[in-house]
Amino acid sequence: MALQEFLDQLEQLVSEAESTFSATESTDALEEARVEFLGAKNGKLKSVQKLMGSVDKEDKPLAGKTFNETKGRIESAFETANERIQGGAGDAERDTQFDPSLPGASFKIGRIHPITQTIEELKDIMGRLGFSTADGPEIEDDWHNFVALNIPDDHPARDPLENFYLATAEASSGEKNQVNLLLRSQTSTVQIRVMEKTKPPIRIISLGRVYRPDTADATHYPMFHQIEGLMIDTNVTMADLKSVLRLFATSYLGDDVTIRFRPSFFPFTEPSVEADYYWNGQWIEFGGAGMVDPNVLQAVGYDPEEVTGFAFGLGVERLCMRRHGITDIREFYKNDVRFLAQF
Amino acid sequence: MLVSWNWLKQYVALDMDREELENRLAMSGLNHEGTETVFDDLAIDLEVTSNRPDCLGHIGVAREIAVLYDLSLSLPDPDPTAAGPSADSGFSVTIDAPELCPRYTARIIRGVKIGESPQWMQDQLRTVFAPVNKDWKPVNNVVDITNYVLMECGQPLHAFDLAKLQGNQIIVREAAEDEAFEAIDHHTYTLAPGMCVIADANRPVAIAGIMGGADSEVGDDTVDILIESAAFSSMATRTTSRALNLHSPSSYRFERALDPEGIEWAANRACELILEHCGGTLDEGFINDGATTWQPEPVVMRLSQIERVLGISIDAEQVKRILLALGNTETTSDENSITVTPPTWRRDLTREADLLEEIARIHGYEKIPEDVGVPMAASFKSDWDRVASKLRTTMTSIGFDESLTASVVPAAWTQTYSPWSSAAPLRTMSPMLKGADALRTSLVPSLLEVRRINQSLANPNVELFETAKVYLPQDEGLPQEQWTLGITSGQGFHHLKGVIETMLHSLKIEEVLTVEPTQQDLLHADYSASLSLNGEHFGFLGEVNAGGLKTFSLRNPASVAEIRMDLLVQHATLIPQHSQLSNFPAITRDINVVLAESVRWDALEASVRSAVDAGLLEDVTYQETYRDPQRDGDDVKRVLFTVKLRRGDQTMTSEEADSVRGQIVAAIESQLDGNLLG
Predict the structure, then answer these.
(1) Which chain B residues are within 8 Å of A129, Cβ to Cβ?
(2) B503 shares its domain with B546
(3) A188 close contact with B: CB closer than 8 A
(4) CATH number of domain containing B279
(5) Is B35 a domain residue?
(6) ipTM reported for the complex, 2 dp
(7) Whole domain around residue B40: which residue ranges?
(8) Between chains, do B353 and A293 touch, taking CB under 8 Å as contact?
(9) Does B603 lie in the same domain as B497?
(10) Residue by residue, what is the 3-state secondary structure of B193-227?
(11) Cβ of A168 and B473 within 8 Å?
């Protein structure tokens, strides 16, 4: 007999047995079915087993293996039907060795980095407020990192010691008006790039890695993440800014909060403020914000007489540390898998 | 900026509650950092933003208080009596470096009596200096007075012992290369071009705006003094101060845009106090070179802009009161606008937007509501975000943790492994972390370093992925920033390949993943591959070789993979489509073939697929490979695989399945010279 024929019979037997067992409604019917398929003398399985003798010798191992699997499958179909009919109520055989308190067979799962989790949550909240995510390069030129953001040549923020300028730019030529490249010190660069190629209204958040030459310690790291929001339209006011930040903080914290503005100074906004939120009986720094400076609007070709807008920026690490009780920023970039497993 | 409570009281009545005042100052721009008691005075620490150097003196802070509480401000109006000869008859000032010093003035007082400054002055100076410098002591009456005026109005001054200035002249010039200078702090500094020095006929006597010299300072035997009051370039002051790591209250202020009119006011104020407390005779007039060119221009404040930008309306009278109280002078006004000329000490006020901020902060940001109805707008989640999110879900659900590692790495790492680019990596001018100044061209070295760190922490299972950019230099312009998925595992090649296939499956990417040999220094010569997706280069995969493990001090095997995320986004099926499923049972056939060792699985699978109508062939599943050289000969293998067949219109019969199997075997025979076993 050809091996394949034998295997097909086995397969057919399984489906026949499964459908018969699953259709039985009583103990008697089930017993009748058991004898039909699994009966020791004239059961169908037994009959098929006899056919194995006629299979080619070469194919015997595979035939035997498949037969055993088939037997197991039919027996398990019987057990399933039996349990269904007994309903567990009868004096079925008890297993005194069964220990339900033994650990289950668990699966190893990985964790999304807490910074990513924070970013995703912030993106999600801002998405519900109508802000779409924009991305841009991390290596930037003077124009996008400074000039268009109203940061003049002599501003301390442009000091080589405050930035990671790329060595290639200087080494390749000594010319004064060549393009200096640097690792962006803020994600506002993305706002400029979006505004340069999009007409208002604009409602975006930009986020990602930014770089500033801080010595790494518990609260500083030379690379960190920022999230910045930008809204530009014909009628955007500081009251809109405050309201959006309140909704943002309320969503993030899960309870009603109130927002306070303290005056501050950023070249790319005027007025500029530090925004705080009131939470658990204290004012907590949220981030910097303000109305987009008319010079910035002009730099990207907008008319400050036609549109206004607000911008705000937050440090992701700080929010994440506060939320999860992390006390050392360096933990984020060490990637101790025990640390990652906590989130 | 530390301010003394008693000092402030000289200019404005402080009848309000102190804490309330601190809070109001914080809410109007002078952040309150703390208050401490210094004897019978209070030192209030206020944070002053870089645009407000006017508040780096007590008068500026007092003015803020007067504006906030609508109080009158009483300021000194110095008018020292000059009884001596004209100051510039026997002494000259020359600016040789106008870009570093636009204006330099000097006044001369002869016959002063050096002694202690008055107790009240010492007390007030102690309040503002002692909290930050526990060793602070008053110096002498002249030096204390220059410091007092500095802290009063924010204009730094310096007093020289006139007898020690050689040649009766001051020259303001750029420092020479390696010029040595001993400052009052008795450290010797090595100067360089770009730095500004105050020199006499023979040598430097001060680092401009930062610190005076040890051998020209005013001491007990000083009789005649020269009071310097000048303007220095803020940028040069900052870079010099940084380069020398020498910071002083004076340099801190010169780094900012000071009041050009403060130069004469401060000099006169100091002279007045010196004449009063040290005696002596003031020479007539200023010795002057240069001029400050900055002049405030009138600014129009349109009242309509207030509501347009702030979202609240403010009464025109209140607007005017705030602007004038801050020292602006009204030029013209009509019912729609107020035009003012800002005061010289507010060089930050040049535009309507600047005035608007002044009005807002004094009027109070708490008056801006936080519950206006911002119009709704649709937001869009990018394909990139959707893919990245799905990717993270898949990777974590199959047991990989997400890591985040630094973008800037040691340059040696980029030589160890840089499969995406053979160009030298971009370098930062200063290292981001110790020894790390190369923008990474691969995530793999960073991930191997994380393995090493975890090994040192005795963490057994390190299965990690990261999505980040690698920075690939281009011939010109900005570098290519390639979003890349990096993966590392303690398992082998096929495990990691399975991870990639699972990920493609989860993104419903149907394009064919193909592998070709690759040569990478870090990877095992055989257990590595270059990956393509739909024929386009997609990434690399491999087990780290012994040398690579050694480079990263790894004791246990590791494998790595790196793939381009843009292709994932390009090929992912984000909106999968339903297709009708067959209700008829599938039928499987195992096929065991003998093949030459050189025939790869992908060729075998392709051959199988070529032989069968795609509508019938549901799956081709590799099972295993055996080798039995005794029976089959060398360089031959047996490959067992299963095909799953199904028809959409009826049950496939056993005979049909056998026929398909026959087609497959025939194809393998003709295309790959393989034979069915047995």
Answers:
(1) 374, 379
(2) yes
(3) no
(4) 3.50.40.10
(5) yes
(6) 0.91
(7) 2-69
(8) yes
(9) no
(10) CCCEEEECCCCEEEECCCEEEHHHECCCCCCCEEE
(11) yes
Do B46 and B96 fall within a single domain? no
In the DSSP assignment, the letter for residue B117 is P
Nearest-10 Cα torsion for B540, B545, B551, B554: 100
Same domain, B529 and B660: no
C-alpha angle B424-B427-B433 in degrees, rounded to nearest 5:
130
Q: Chain B partners of A152 at a C-beta cutoff of 8 Å?
A: none
pLDDT per residue as tens digits for the range A212-262: 999 999 999 999 999 999 999 999 999 999 999 999 999 999 988 999 999
Which of B27, B371, B428 has its CB closest to that of A262? B27
Whether B420 and B454 map to the same domain: the answer is: yes
Please report whether residue B508 resides in a domain.
Answer: yes
* Amino acid code (one letter) for B491: Q
Cα B494 to the center of its chain, rounded Å: 41
Is the Cβ pair B432, A340 closer than 8 Å?
no
Yes or no, beta carbons of A293 and B437 under 8 Å apart: no
Of A138, A259, A337, the CB nearest to B401: A337
Model pLDDT for residues A135-147, shown as the tens digit of each residue: 999 999 999 999 9
User: How buried is residue B98: exposed, middle or buried, by Cβ count under 10 Å (0-12/13-18/19+)?
Assistant: middle
CB pair distance less than 8 Å for B403 and A164: no
Enumerate residues 125 to 144 of chain A having a beta carbon within 8 A of any beta carbon in chain B: 126-133, 135, 137-141
- pLDDT tens profile A282-336: 999 999 999 999 999 999 999 999 999 999 999 999 999 999 999 999 999 999 9
One-letter-per-residue 3-state SS of A283-304: EEEEEEEEEECHHHHHHCCCCC
Touching B: A residues 249-288, CB under 8 Å: 258-265, 270-274
Please indicate whether, in this complex, the C-beta atoms of A246 and B403 are within 8 angstroms of each other: no
Give the mean pLDDT per block of 10 residues along chain B (678 residues): 96 96 96 95 96 96 96 96 93 96 97 97 97 94 97 97 96 96 94 96 96 94 97 94 95 94 97 97 96 90 97 96 96 93 96 97 97 94 96 97 98 94 93 94 98 96 97 89 98 97 97 94 96 96 97 97 97 95 94 95 96 94 93 93 96 95 96 90
CA–CA dist A156, B256 (Å, integer): 10
Give the Cβ contact number of residue B112 at 10 Å.
24
Q: How many interchain CB pairs under 8 A, A with B?
A: 249
Longest dimension (CA), chain B: 127
Among B10, B39, B69, identify where a domain stops: B69
Q: What does the DSSP assignment read for B534-564?
A: TTEEEEEEEEE-HHHHHHTT--S--EEEEEE
Task: Kindly identify which residue of chain B lies nearest to residue A107, measuring between CA atoms.
Answer: B399
Among candidates A130, A183, A270 on the partner chain, residue whose Cβ is nearest the Cβ of B357 = A270
Measured CA to CA, the distance from residue B34 to residue B36 in angstroms comes to: 7
Residue A291's closest chain B neighbor by CA?
Answer: B309
Average pLDDT, chain A: 90
Count of beta carbons in the 10 Å neighbourhood of residue B476: 7
Left (φ > 0), alpha (ψ -120 to 50) or beta: where does B178 sit?
Answer: left
Contact residues on chain B for A209, CB-CB shorter than 8 A: 407
**Domain of B525: which CATH number?**
3.30.930.10
Q: Which residues of A touch B49 (CB under 8 A)?
A: 263-265
Domain co-membership, B276 together with B318: no
All residues of chain B having their beta carbon less than 8 Å from the beta carbon of residue A19 are none
Encoding tokens for residue A114? 């807490």
pLDDT at A90: 54
Q: In what order do the strands lie in the sheet with B41-47?
A: B2-4, B41-47, B31-38
Coil, strand or helix: which one is A242? helix
For residue B86, the one-letter residue type is: S
B572, two tokens = 């992912």
